[in-house]
Design brief:
single chain; 216 residues; alpha/beta; Uracil-DNA Glycosylase, subunit E; 4-stranded parallel sheet; 8 helices; 6 strands
């Protein structure tokens, strides 16, 4: 795609209004080509005073249809892990780096996920910046390697970085960056973990417990 056809989301981000205004405005966003095939833009969900943001990669097939983040199988695992870590879901704000669903093909009625590129992340970054500006959270839990590479660059490895508090990077602008970022496993990885499912889930819960302690 030509660069001039991917202008970025900034011109669609409203100058005022709350999270509901962001969600409405995002439906008109043509900041990159992903809007053409997606059902709708999926802005985050949660209270405007949430101190903890859970940040994933992009909405999936079910999220794209529902218009809400983390409502599919990975979302149910995340809900369970939050409960086991002692974090009330209603006290968190859940969102993604990229707000439109990117997919490469279909399998029956299901569309098969394709990870967004760095160009998509950069084009969509003004929406995340606006969310953080409104929320001003204490911390962000970064879910998975794709979101991690989008935020920290291609050298990011979730296995090397998980469970360690770090700072918000300069590569993605934020007028009010969180005090810390905690990388961890994306809950969808647990679905693919096979015999290691219990172990990988326990690691996610341990990381979320660290996030809870860091908010105290």
């Amino acid at each position: 795609m030509l660069e001039e056809e991917r202008p970025g989301a900034q011109q669609w981000v409203p100058a005022k209004g709350g999270l509901a205004a962001l969600s409405r405005a995002a439906q008109r966003c043509h900041g990159c080509e992903l809007y053409r095939d997606a059902t709708q833009a999926v802005i985050g969900a949660g209270p405007s005073d949430a101190r903890l943001v859970l940040l994933g990669e992009q909405p999936g097939d079910q999220e794209d249809r529902a218009g809400a983040p983390f409502v599919g199988p990975a979302g149910r695992i995340l809900d369970s892990a939050l409960a086991d870590a002692g974090i009330a879901k209603e006290d968190t704000y859940v969102t993604n780096m990229v707000k439109h669903f990117r997919f490469r093909s279909t399998r029956g009625k299901q569309r098969i996920h394709q990870s967004p590129t760095q160009a998509h992340v950069i084009a969509c970054a003004p929406w995340l910046e606006a969310e953080l500006d409104l929320l001003r959270p204490t911390g962000v839990v970064l879910l998975g390697s794709t979101a991690g590479k989008a935020l920290y660059g291609p050298s990011f490895r979730v296995g090397d970085s998980r469970g360690v508090l770090t700072s918000w990077p300069d590569r993605i602008p934020a007028s009010h960056p969180p005090e810390w970022v905690l990388p961890t496993t994306h809950p969808s990885a647990i679905l693919r973990a096979g015999d290691r499912r219990h172990e990988v889930y326990a690691g996610l819960v341990d990381d979320l417990r660290l996030a809870a302690r860091s908010l105290a």
